[in-house]
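Worked example 2:
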Amino acid sequence: MDDNLLYRLAFASVRGMNVTLGRELLRICGSEREFFELSETRLRDLTQSADAPIYAKTYRDAKLRAAEAELLFVRSRSVAIRYFTDPDFPQRLLNCEDAPVLLYGSGDADLNRGHMIGIVGTRHATAYGIDFTRQLVGDLARQIETPVIISGLAYGIDIAAHRAALAAGIPTVAVMATGISTIYPADHRSAAVDIVRNGGMLLTEYTSKDYVHKGNFVARNRIVAGLSDCLVVSESASKGGALITANLAAGYNRDVFALPGRVADRYSAGCNRLIASSVAQLVTSANDVINAMGWPRLADPDAINHLALPLPLNPDEDLIVKFLEQNEDATLSQLTAASGLSVAKLMSMLIDMEFRGLLLSLPGARYRLMQN
């Protein structure tokens, strides 16, 4: 067994552990191993803490036993470990006092590469927010070097951001509120597989034994915010996780952007409030983000578009495209009737067309052609 990793896994699982506490305990104890091997009396003397339960020998021994099982899981599943004292740990997070000391990952993404853009929003995304997200990610991919999209794999804006990155051919990182082996929601399992296969990463602070808890989703937001150079809120109601993430990002001195909407639109209320309170800058396009961040543009991004070849369509796909050209959008049942295809075959085809950037999936199982 890898003793060094064993002690790191156990150290990371200590209640209340973060980079601030971790640095202090390593300064006092010298190593993770020493933290677990010191007597309870000696450890309490060194930390000048008489009551903290995390220094009890029984507590530390229990954490070591749990870490032994977790180490077997990590090794058997080839889980990537990012530890806060290693160079491959996301350096942006080291400036966030409440960041975790260890992250579990699946995938090969470099978490310290170029431009990291967090995109979050409501789970009840409208066509307005989804359209903006797709356009934003596509334009960022064409105009700047090494963009990486960060989001939380949730319904709505999150999954739209991940799929837009996949369609644009750039890496995306999904920060999860579950252990690495549990994809939540399960509907996004295929997207999670595509993220890993296409140079992205699934990332979490939770072990394989941690239960899904609603508090995890709030805690997850600090990692999305901390990983990002800037954060874009595409849509948000007056309350919700996206607003929490935006305020965390602002607290970490990240630039925050929000898409404005009509005052009567429920899922623009949060964005409008972020702008009005000066927490976020108004954003309407990728240009707003690039200019505000001072990022250099690719020499001739339009040249990439000129070289792009039309995507070939098979006869069934061509039929769907022509139907949608005559209708603003259509439901799955309408497309089934128009195409004469079985629901199973049509669904598979629609998912593929969405991944290729031909279609936009809307709430209520409706579909629309992507605008060029």
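Residues 303-309 have pLDDT under 50 and may be disordered. The domain at 115-305 is CATH 3.40.50.450 (Rossmann fold).
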